[in-house]
Write a structure and sequence with these properties.
The protein is mainly α. It has three helices and no strands. The chain is about 75% helix and about 0% strand.
């Protein structure tokens, strides 16, 4: 990941870097890797995330199409 610092404005570059890392999911990944997660827990978490994403997609589709 790369961010360009313009006019020695490090604060702005740092903000852009944090935003990119947030979008890529780096912070969430770091939080998950702090402690060991059993394979069964990982599978359950990923399944729950998939269900959440699917329901969100259905809500957005229902809102867009109106039925």
């Amino acid at each position: 990941m790369q961010v360009i610092v313009r006019d020695n404005n490090v604060d702005q570059a740092l903000r852009a870097l944090k935003k990119k890392m947030q979008r890529e999911g780096v912070f969430r990944e770091m939080k998950l890797r702090r402690h060991f997660e059993k394979p069964s827990e990982k599978k359950a978490r990923e399944r729950a995330e998939a269900v959440r994403r699917h329901r969100k997609l259905l809500r957005k589709r229902l809102e867009r199409e109106g039925f």
